[in-house]
Automatic annotation (TrEMBL):
Keyword tags: Kinase, Transferase
Highest taxon of the lineage: Bacteria
Enzyme class: transferase
Native species: Petralouisia muris
Documented EC number(s): 2.7.4.25
Protein name: (D)CMP kinase
């Protein structure tokens, strides 16, 4: 039976970074579900679809194929056969992702693929509703969070390192708004699963969080 680890939490909590490190340490496959939703959001943006136009979003879902593969230990996301890894991490795509991932059609499109992978593969999957909806029977569930201020500073420094002009105040406001959207959406809202372990990374290093997760896995495997 495959061993599954579900990591949920708000934007900017470090889910992807931590999941990648833990997956590498365990020799598990890492599945970044957020990247898959971002790929769909990129398609909607390219088509000029408004985030609140659910009918057009639903129709566009029929035109989209999202797939993933591992290359040199890194997950690659493909949108209709195009590798879009380098295009899906912008603020614009992030906002569209949060706005359109509330739609049932969008979620159904990807959930079946994610569940199918988990049935046969030892993996770590991160997102907003993995432990509560996508993989409710995951052997280890983590809810990883951090304060808005901490997450904002992390994102601010990340963008600065890339030479992107940005405002810390604006970034924090965007994160708070996204939290509200994710936690209050009608379908699969962001919340901590009853059997998930809460980890607040505000005052923890990446290594400290990773080690805590690895300890949980060793105890339950």
């Amino acid at each position: 039976m495959a061993f599954n680890i579900a990591i949920d939490g708000p934007a900017g909590a470090g889910k992807s970074t931590i999941a990648k490190k833990a997956a590498e340490a365990l020799s598990y496959i890492y599945v970044d579900t957020g990247a898959m939703y971002r790929a769909m959001a990129l398609y909607f943006l390219r088509k000029g679809i408004a985030a609140d136009d659910e009918a057009s979003v639903n129709a566009a879902c029929e035109e989209i194929t999202v797939s993933i593969s591992m290359e040199n230990g890194e997950q690659q996301v493909f949108l209709n056969g195009e590798n879009v890894n380098g295009l899906i991490r912008t603020e614009e795509v992030g906002k569209m992702t949060s706005a359109t991932s509330i739609y049932r059609k969008v979620r159904e499109k990807l959930t079946d693929l994610q569940r199918s992978m988990a049935q046969t593969t030892d993996l770590i999957m991160d997102g907003r509703d993995i432990g509560t909806s996508v993989l409710p029977k995951a052997q280890v569930k983590i809810y990883l969070t951090a304060s808005v201020e901490t997450r904002g500073k992390r994102r601010f420094l990340e963008l600065q390192e890339k030479g992107i002009d940005c405002s810390l105040e604006t970034i924090c406001a965007d994160i708070a708004k996204r939290d509200e959207q994710d936690m209050n959406r009608e379908i699969s809202p962001l919340r901590q699963a009853e059997d998930a372990v809460l980890i607040d990374s505000s005052d923890m290093s990446i290594q400290e969080v990773t080690e805590k997760i690895l300890k949980l896995v060793r105890e339950r495997r």
